Amino acid sequence: MGCFTFLKAMMFVFNGIIFLAGIGILGVGIWVKVDSGSVLSFLGKIENVPPEISQVLNVGYLLIAIGALLVVIGFLGCCGAVRESKCMLLLFFLIVLLVFIAEVAGAVVILAFQPLAANLLAKVGQAASDNIKSSYGKNADLTGLWNSTMDTLKCCGFNNFTDFRNSPYYNSSTSMYPPQCCGNTNNPCNQTVAESTMTAGCFPKIKSLVDGNTVVIIAVALGIAALELCAMVVSMTLYCRIKSTMA
User: Membrane topology per the record (predicted)?
Assistant: First the structure.
């Protein structure tokens, strides 16, 4: 009986934290969508903020979805444990199981289709390079987006500085590249300086960042998977124990 009570308490505490976190995330998501004017006003007060930052409002939908899922899981886990409700515990188990299966399926797809992903990334890279060549320096939104990305990641173009060759910016500035491609120096960013600086492209920079933190990413993923497995085991243990007690 002591073990049963302990499992109930752990189930309640663990899912209570999930429930509160879900409410917080859900609240932030709703606030971002409902009070978007205030969010934009706040962002507008930040100096030198790029106009593309307004796209952060779209994150509200993701926050609402994640928050709602966490609230449901936390509620079912807490109430199922406290009220010893087999129905709630079973629903909790099934939802966590579905999330776990989706995560495993996603990992398998990523591993199984790595060659396809590499081919897709190559096509995306070509499209991004073509987009830079046709619109950078002419399309204000795209130019601002690339500038903010390059400033943040300290990178140049999608692949490297050659992406900007023959772009509207390049042609209108007498064969000059964006200053980010030359380390934001005060000197004109011409071919010679860009070649000597060799600032990495944004895609290689992101790939290097991910590769450098692979262990951390895998550890976090395994930790989440372990917690989900533990939650499923505990919920099913309580479910079976309640069933045997009521029999």
Answer: Multi-pass membrane protein
Residue 94: pLDDT over 90: yes
Q: Residue 175: count other Cβ atoms within 10 Å of its Cβ.
A: 12
Prediction pTM value: 0.58
Q: Which domain holds residue 154?
A: 130-246
Place of tokens 């079976």: 240
Q: Is the pLDDT of residue 148 over 60?
A: yes
**In this predicted model, what pLDDT tens digit does every residue of 21-47 receive, in sequence order?**
889 888 888 877 776 655 555 555 444
The predicted pLDDT at position 39 comes to 52
Residue 2: the pLDDT is 72
The Cα–Cα gap between 145 and 173 comes to 19
Q: How many domains does the chain have?
A: 1
Dihedral of CA 121/122/127/132: which sign?
Answer: positive
Spatial separation of the C-alpha atoms in residues 20 and 13, rounded to whole Å: 11
| Within-domain flag for 54 | no
Closest CA to 60 of 32, 83, 36: 32
Residue 203 lies in a domain: yes
228, part of any domain: yes
- DSSP conformational letter for 180: G
Residue 57 lies in a domain: no
Rounded to the nearest 10 degrees, the angle between the axes of helix 202-212 and helix 140-153 is 40
User: 11: pLDDT confidence band, cut at 50, 70 and 90?
Assistant: confident
